[in-house]
Amino acid sequence: MSESGFTFSAVDYVVFGLMLLLSVAIGIYNAYRERNSNSANDYLNATKSMSMLPVAISLCVTYESALNLLSTPAEIYLYGSMASWGLIATISAPIIAAHIFMPTYYAAGITSVYDYLRLRFNRVTQILGTLTFMSGALVYSGVNMYAPAIAFEAVSGLNTWASILACGVVCILYTTFGGFKGIVWTDVFQSFVIVVGVIAVVTRGVMINGGFAEIWNAAYEGGRIDFVHFETDVRIRHTFWSVVIDSLIVTTASYGTSQPAVQRFFSCKSLKDSQMTALVNIVGHIMLYGIAFLLAIVAYAHYRGCDPLEQGCISKIDQIIPLLVMDVYHNYYGIPGLFLACIFAATLSTISSTMNALASAAMDNIVTPYTKFNERTQFYVSKGMVFFFGVVCIGIAALMTNALEIYEAALSLISITMGPLLGLFTLGMQFPFANWKGASGGVICGIASGAWLYLGRKSITQSNDFVRAMDVTTDQCNFTCNGEEIVTNYTTLGYWTTPVDATTIPEIYDEDVPFYTLSFRYISATGFIGCIISGCIISLLTGGWRDRHKVNPKLLRPLFDLWIFRIWIPEKVRKFLRFGIEWSEDGNDDKFGTKSEKYRTKETSGVYSVQMDPGNVYANESFVDDKNAIRGLVIYDFSISIRNGKYKKYWIYIDSFCYEMSLLCSHVGERECPDIEQILKKIAGLHCGKIRLID
């Protein structure tokens, strides 16, 4: 029996189990379809092979986690609607990512977002950026797995550890078997479960509480409908500025610098498709954001005058939405199970995408550059990586049992890493004088400053003048949580969840450390600004300004050279804002997909005749090449005809920073790759290079 007196029926468990079973089945089916492929790249990334619509749906549900469906409505229920200003970032961040970050990545010809850091800086910065993402993603995944488990235990009796294990095991199964394509198609299925579940709850909640006008009026009278707080006091929990700044930094980092989102953009067939994916994804987020808001005001209208947290029916405010579901649907067998499936579908979509992204980031940036595994071995190591990160996520979920407010804990912990990560990529694209020492030092300083603020806030108690928790009451409660009639009750107002004598109220905050009184919404901004400032200072002190002209322009994306600024800011001003670096939009064409084929490929015939893109450098039939001609980042398109008439086409990517070559074969014919490797080494004149074949 749960704290609320409700339990799930057998039908509810069948509905929930069916969702889990179908999720696993989709993963296994995709594994069967791809049974003849042993490509690690196809398994983890499915580069340039997916259609736009399923990728857009997958992208949407990846970031529409259980936290959004449980903790966001709970936040609005207790603190009001100011958190809804985050919708501005939900709309603008994907557009920023699609038009600033993605063109740069496509021009660089990379398949992993953190490979950009290697090209722009070096391997040290690449690994540092990868580890920053991985640490934040693991913690966030653990919180996402724990949140629905603890919420449903309190209101339905569903055991927390059983929920975590069920979610973790199912996620590991279909993610490990199905790979990236299996995850995308499972996300499509789970998106329908999410939409049906939340619409069912909202519809029933509106009906039994007198209609939409009635619940809106109740929320308005209770102070929950309030969007006008433009104070500049950084101690206040939610203001327009704190919500928009925090949401914009975290969401832009999620879409532009985080592997799960960029991985989906790379899976699209062209840059244009990836940009359309971002736009379609926005539509889904607006709809789900609106539903979360409706859940909040329905919950308030239903429990006004009898707050379940004060009454003791739930132990955490994050449990209020599951309690609402059990309250309004406890006589409808299967519907509570549908909502449970909805919440866990949101969890599975987030966790599976994160597991795959973690494995992809680890393989592409840490494992592959330092190993000599063949393609088949890489494939199985990739599967092992996915399994390993799934187990780690389960372990982190087990450590979250002491989190009092899941919403604040989740946002705070992810902000510690996402702010500096966005700062790191901003240094690379917007500051040509930033070098690897400044970038590496900047991200470390950014993480340290964000963590300092987070831990400092834990050591103080803030006044409700800044927290602004709204009044709740139990003076209209007629029954206990177990349905027994109440003879006497009392009213409780304020921020604390139990009656507190005025003489025992904790000290507001320590006057000696006012920095700790900043709203948790400024943790991401603290890390972002800390990274930028320290990164610029370190770079300037270590010769970055002198070397700024050596940076390849393809790796830059000056903000003020976008068309929206270019039409009204003169070129002289824009050149000053990009620190004197020459840059043009035309120089960042997508060498893989958006450039016309006739400009990309030149073909010749012969025993091993090769002609490179004349726009870059030319190598004749005798394989004579000027080594200096290929310094910097160059993308080549090769067409090779061999003696027996078999035709092969290759993409060659040459990075002269460490003289490496990566060979992407679109087709593998009869001739073995070692022969091709020797030819290409002669072409490039790279004797210390390493060639990686991706089938």
Describe the protein in words.
With 695 residues, this protein is mainly alpha-helical. Helix content is 58%, strand content 4%. A four-stranded mixed β-sheet has the order 1-2-3-4, with helices on one face. Strand 3 (660-665), helix 24 (673-684) and strand 4 form a beta-alpha-beta unit. The longest helix is centred in the first third of the chain and has 49 residues, at 160-208.
Q: Which features characterize this protein?
A:
695 residues, four-stranded mixed β-sheet, disordered C terminus, mainly alpha
How many helix segments?
24
Assembly form of the protein: single chain
Q: Which whole number gives the mean pLDDT?
A: 77
Radius of gyration, in angstroms, nearest whole number: 27 Å
Brief description of this entry?
This protein is 58% helix and 4% strand. It is mainly alpha-helical and 695 residues long.
